[in-house]
Here is the input.
Amino acid sequence: MEAKFNHHLLSCIFLLFLLNPFQCFSSSYPSHQISTPQTPSPLDYLKSLIGTKKGTRAKGLPQLKTYLSNLGYMKTNTNSTNSDQSNNDLFNDNLEIALKKYQTFFKLQTSGILDFQTVSKLLQPRCGIPDNFDNIKNTNDNNKINSTIMSSLYTYFPGQPKWAPTKRNLTYSFPPITRNDIRRPIANALGEWARVTLFTFRYIQDYNKADIKISFQVRDHGDGHPFDGPGGTLAHAYLPSDGRLHYDGDEKWVDGVVPGATDLQTVGLHELGHVLGLQHSTDPSSIMWPTIGPGFRKDLGQDDIRGIKALYGFP
Here is the structure.
């Protein structure tokens, strides 16, 4: 009897397999757990530079020098000779000084070495506006790196440009063809700045006549500051009274908090700070902190509020 029962049981299992072979193994191979590689970042070259220090040569150092130059930490030598070009993969004194400035800004160990913490910070998505390190007050002379930053951590653009006293009611707009999910985050971000200033913001249909022009752009989009694709630079904006604000259209954008995606409102709040005249802050809790990671939302900090009020003399 037992052998006959096993024979019938095996026959039923075999029949089920013939009718639906994939269902039998569905628990072993769940359809939503297929592993897909992450989108490469334009900064992935940095991963191979961990541990690099002055005096060494390495592939990727020319790119790093360009990146730090774009962020305002070192000067690009436009009159370089062939000898300079051949030494571009050399970790030289200028790169060490630039790294120490970067480490000071981000409150890292000021070693001048591409250690794990420094590379991890360099890999984080961020605003494309330079950090303007030279505008931070130092107690030491200009030839030294100061690790003590002033208590007010906000900074301004050189010359402290700002909107004219007659421009307190600013208009904003989007191009005729734009994604709809940007409208609410921008309205919310503008509402946050209006809450702590004397500015008001009003949407108008005519994009070309708006004071603040918000758009999505990709790669080289004609302003001399090309985007770099997914990862790296998220957005950039222009100081008063230019009013342009560009999101990198290649990024994964969302309205809200979603793992692996970047919040439109948080980045908009940051970039609108630039539009109003604020530079980057060295306060990590500030919205004007340069790096903005995926999967969270951030609001205005006290340093942001102090900075914008001091710039315009608002009560």
The beta strands are 126-127, 169-173, 200-203, 212-217, 233-237, 244-248, 253-254, 262-263.
